[in-house]
Amino acid sequence: MLDERKTAILRAVVQEYVTTGQPVGSTTISREPTVNVSSATVRNDMAVLEQEGYLAQPHTSAGRIPTDKGYRLFVDSIAPDGMLSPGDATRVGDFFSAAHGRLDDLLRRTTNLLTTITQHTALVVGPPVETNTVRDVYISRVSDRAATVVVFLSNHAVENETIQIPDVINDEHVALATVHLRRLLVGRSLGEVENVESTNDVHVDAVCFATMNALGRHRKDKPVYVGGAAALADAFDAVHIVRNILETIEQQFVVVTLVQDLLDRGLSVAIGAEHGVEPLAACSVVVAPVIAEGEVVGSVGVLGPTRMNYPQALATVEVVGEQLGRRIAEGGA
């Protein structure tokens, strides 16, 4: 357990390094009002903090930088309570007050909001398709062998699929299949419908089967939206690190699993290797659940370098997650 002075020094080092991105020297920390001791005393205490794994010295003559362990202590016990600035709080309020349109558009634009405020890459995971009821179904022929299926869901999301159909199927078959599927699906979730009743017309049944097969591939999918990926290029000097991170977050399954694992473990912050995704070892992830009507329906988060403003990131994802959940509960956008 660190004493009060070493705790104050560690806090000051973290805050200074987050601001400047440069190793922090003892002289700089000794000038902090919360420290107020000589640079020699600070230098000795920083050496102890380094020995205990809270700080590291990248070069012999350089100052110190926080380690993942140092950030963890900062986040868990010594970080100041984060609050959105009045300007950011207004921006969030205005955004959700003016939100209109489909849910997928709202989720996508929410990533832009998170990136604008935090200057980090934003991750938004929406509710799975199968938990929402179907409002309407449209099937439209686009060629002799293809048709487009559009399903409108209760959360204002829209699912689009292209299906392949035999060229013997005509427009009447497609229209009858649309009527049949509306009768079966409207008012029910896709997860409730396992089998499609036969219409006693093999051509109509073929369209229905192709439609349900296409939609079934997405019933359990949780849509993932990533915004502000370009922010990673500004955060890391090494091109290979940026490339590895980008390739990783492009994999929807990895993002969903990462965020869900953190929430299941009761974590709002994973620092460095704590999240267990090796290509993201240079990053921290800050997440918050999205709750609508008492149910967790998704999550929001930001991903950035371990040198991030944790209090601000925590406050931002908490407020945005709360507002997004309220918006979804009100019927989407």
Strand and helix layout:
Blueprint: H1 4-20, H2 26-30, H3 39-51, E1 55-56, E2 65-66, H4 68-78, H5 86-97, H6 103-118, E3 121-125, E4 134-143, E5 146-153, E6 158-164, H7 171-185, H8 202-216, E7 224-227, H9 231-235, H10 239-249, H11 252-264, E8 269-271, E9 283-292, E10 295-305, H12 310-329
Helix pairs in contact: 1-3, 1-4, 5-12, 6-12, 7-8
Care to describe what's here?
By secondary structure, this protein is of the alpha+beta class. The chain is built from 12 helices and 10 strands. The chain has helices at 4-20, 26-30, 39-51, 68-78, 86-97, 103-118, 171-185, 202-216, 231-235, 239-249, 252-264, 310-329, and strands at residues 55-56, 65-66, 121-125, 134-143, 146-153, 158-164, 224-227, 269-271, 283-292, 295-305. The strands form 3 sheets. The chain has a 5-stranded antiparallel beta sheet, with helices on both faces. It is elongated, with a radius of gyration of 25 Å. The protein starts with a helix and ends with a helix.
Specify the helix fraction band. 40-55%
What's the β-strand tally? 10
Major sheet: arrangement of strands: 7-3-10-9-8
Main β-sheet: number of strands, strand sense, barrel status? 5 strands, antiparallel
Helical run tally:
12
Q: Per DSSP, what share of the residues sits in E-state strands of 2 or more residues?
A: 15-25%
Average pLDDT across residues? 89
